[in-house]
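Lab notes, practical 5.
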Amino acid sequence: MIDARSSEMREFVDEMAASVAMIGRDEAGQLLVWACNENFLQMTGGKRSAIRSFPASFDTLIPNYARTEFRHKLSECFESAAAQELEQAYDLRDGTHWWRLSLKPLRHGGGTSVLYILVTGLEITAKMQLMHELEVSTSRFRSVVDAAYDAIITIDQQHCITLFNRAAENLFGYSAEEMVGRSITELLPERYRANHSQYVHQFARSPVRSRQMDERNRVYGLHRDGSLLPVEIAISKINVGGLIEFTAVIRDIADRVQLMDLLQKQAVTDELTGLPNRREFADTVENLLGTDSKLSIFILDIDYFKKINDSYGHDTGDEVLRVLAKVVMNADRRIGVFARWGGEEFVAALPGLDIEQATSIADDLRLTIEQQNFEHIWRLGKPIPFTVSIGVTERQPRENDVGAIVKRADLALYRAKDNGRNRVEVG
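Output from the prediction step:
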């Protein structure tokens, strides 16, 4: 009876193109292969000559490294009477082959117990190799992206983040797990968010595939702690299955911006006193002349400054210049701009003030310096006496020539010197 049943099974499975085996159990619960076709033997690396008769022991046909998982799935199938699936690799002489095995329980008649399990296998080596190549490619891509010095962020058409590399984590202070799936606008300062969606849609419709973002103006990102990040951004777009994705390469330019700001400040700042220099003063006053408001200007000169240098040395002379700058900056808030004009000369702009008000401020300042009515610890341990002469003038109606106004103040300054110094003259 057993031989007849086994013969029928062998005829059944031999006619199938897939890898097929019929597996049952003996009275002791040991797994038996009642029949299998050549494809099944090729799958496992077995040989028909090694099988004396069917049913054959499961262990004689299945390699040792594949038995445990295979046996576990068969046991689940017998106990639960539910179909099972597994993928297994078999190492043969020509290489490794991958198979997907489907296990279907077979009952006898209307019974509930499983008598046999039909095992069918489809080779998926090509698919697994393709998946492996894809994994390698993906891993290589991820390694390159994560090793990149610049932050790389990808968003979908809904502006949700789909990729957030390690440099982006370092730049913005968020982890990739926190940011993937969230809107890119969370990384933008509030003032940029309203127009961002329109900008993305415009770029999506444009034939341009990549561009530098806002080449003329500074662009800022928003750090987790709320601080602004000056950045440089290059964006590109790709079509993925009919949907457009956008990738931004973001470079931190904080050091560059800091250097540029420093250079810009140095270009308009007097190095010794920290005051605006002559060019910055002229530019500022020119802007003030764009209105019809009142404006007064005074020029201040340290009396007998050469004598200070000759008596105390140039270091002390520099100290006097710095002291003067500090005193004037703290003297009266109505002095809008105070700058070093050159040498021991300084110039001030007093927007909104007429000649009487400016003269009063200038004379108070002169008196403060004469009486040393300020706090300063002198380098030599004792105060250095000095006085100043000041020439004051005001803007004439509709006058917009900075040079002409300063020249009148300069003439008034020379009159103050000619009339004995340590005084204020109006021009």
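Observations recorded by the TA: The chain is about 40% helix and 25% strand. The chain has three domains: 2-128, 148-256, 269-426.
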